[in-house]
Amino acid sequence: MTGSAPGTGDTQVAPATRSQRPAGPPGATTLERKATARRALLEGPILSTLIRLALPTLLVLLAQTAVNVVETFYVGFLGTESLAGVALVFPVFMLMMTMSAGGIGSGVGSAVARALGSGRQDDADALVLHSLVLAIVIGALFSIGVIWAGPWIYHTLGGRGVSLRSALVYSNTLFSASIAVWVVNLLAAALRGAGNVKLPAMVTLFGAFIMIPASPALIFGFGPIPRLGIAGAGLAFAVYYGVAVLILLRYLISGRSELRLKWARPQRRLFTDILKVGAPSALNTVQTNLTVILITGTVGSFGISALAGYGIASRLDYVMIPILFGLSSGVLTMVGVNVGAGQMERAKRIARIAAGAGFALAECIGVLAAAAPLTWLHLFSRDPAVLDQGVTYLRIVAPAYGLLGVAFVVSFAAQGAGHVKWPFIGNSVRMVVAAGLGWIAVKSMGAGMTGLAFIIAASLATYALIASIAMISPAVWRENRP
Fold first, then answer.
1. Are both 212 and 291 inside the same structural domain?
2. Of 256, 34, 434, 451, residue with least CA distance to 14
């Protein structure tokens, strides 16, 4: 869409700029930059704008994944028990990260994008403060909850003896920084919702460059730094997020940003605007992690080799998440701004183009993985029994990655429009099919890895089909401006 519909595009930018323009060239420059960025979202070419928004986020999420791999490599030198301790904490850690960045964070990004799209700069700024309040409250609950319930959680997951003690030391250090993690992820989501993907990307890359040398220094000791063991890995993470909080807060207070953190009276409607998207999206992340846990339990009945084979093969499923999240975060921003501006047809077109891009990207990876599964599996194991199970999984499930790409992108497009009903239902049904029917097939019908893999692939098709109802639902694309 190259032009502007009546009441949208340039016709909204000019009045907002005049009404907010302070005296002096510096203020005018900032407002002009905001107007230019908004105009690109409302009128610019869709695919190139989407790539510009998605690429920085995609690169930094891949950098984060690399940091996690490197940290696990360092911990491996402490011994198998320490490595097992980190493995016990990982699902809980991933739950926090996905809930903050992709769950409540989606609600923040959607609310900010829709506010800016409709010209409500004051509301957009106020949403930053409301996001900060939510981050502090939820982050504190995570710290208290995980530290208090940690012994029971990690014992239930199989921790015993030294591995349990290692898990608790690592977890307590890691989750002491929960507030900082939530603050960083929600403020970064607010900036992405405003179309600023560069600063969150720079902060994350800064963290990667800091943590890669800091982790071994704190784990093994270096010069005046004492050897902290597994606690050092958690401390490096906590220090990075503490510094990242200060950087983001200073930037948002400075007035150089598209958004500004300043005092505003807390308003129920703004909390509601965040949580109506963020709460169901956060529950989606819980369902996704629970699905993995339940499937893992089902595969465990096949034996150690099958469990290991499934573990290393399905790790590629997790790699897909940051790739698709990088693309989808740009979709959320573009759809949200256009919905806020009342450009519903353009918003739907963005969603359709992005869904096609998500399918193509994910399907290319899936086809390659299915055609040459050992390329991935040999990174982790050479055991023939393990590889046989991993090959079976990837050859059946990986070709369905394109459907996962469609479901993921459509879910974020719906979040940008402020509606999450169909993606939520789709993910719920996916869990029932993959974990529920998968367990029944294995326990009652004697299905092996082949049968379970086909059920998991079918669950991705079901997820995509139901989530895509959002693309044709009148309720999602009905103009509903505050």
1. no
2. 34
Rounded to whole angstroms, the Cα distance separating 138 from 80 reads 33
Give the three-state DSSP class for 222: strand
Same domain, 328 and 441: yes
Q: What is the per-residue pLDDT for 83?
A: 66
Spell out the residues 6+ positions from residue 229 whose beta carbon is closer than 8 angstroms to its own.
78, 82, 169, 219
Length of the chain: 482
- The DSSP letter of residue 399 is G
Which ranges of 341-437 does DSSP label H, i.e. alpha helix?
A: 344-371, 373-377, 384-397, 401-416, 421-431
Evaluate whether 348 touches 429 at the Cβ level (below 8 Å): no
pLDDT tens digits, residue range 289-304? 788 778 877 887 787 6
Helices (H), 159-264: 161-175, 178-193, 198-220, 230-254
Q: How far apart are CA 239 and CA 234, in angstroms?
A: 9
Dihedral pair phi/psi, residue 481, rounded to 5°: -85, 140
Q: Are residues 227 and 299 in the same domain?
A: no
Q: Please, where are the H alpha helices in 77-120?
A: 80-98, 105-117
| Per-residue tokens: 385 | 């029994």
On whether residue 82 sits in a domain, the answer given is yes
The label of the residue with tokens 């403020």 reads 187
Q: Are residues 280 and 262 in the same domain?
A: no
What pTM was computed for the model? 0.72
Quote the longest CA-to-CA distance of the chain: 75
Q: Is residue 163 part of a domain?
A: yes
Residue at a domain's end among 266, 294, 323: 266
Q: Are residues 127 and 205 in the same domain?
A: yes
Residue 482's pLDDT band, with cuts at 50, 70 and 90, is very low
Distance, in Å, from the CA atom of 363 to the CA atom of 409, rounded to the nearest integer, reads 13
Radius of gyration of the chain (CA): 23
Query: Cβ(419)–Cβ(476) under 8 Å?
Result: yes
With 0-12 / 13-18 / 19 or more C-beta atoms within 10 angstroms meaning exposed / middle / buried, residue 478 is: exposed
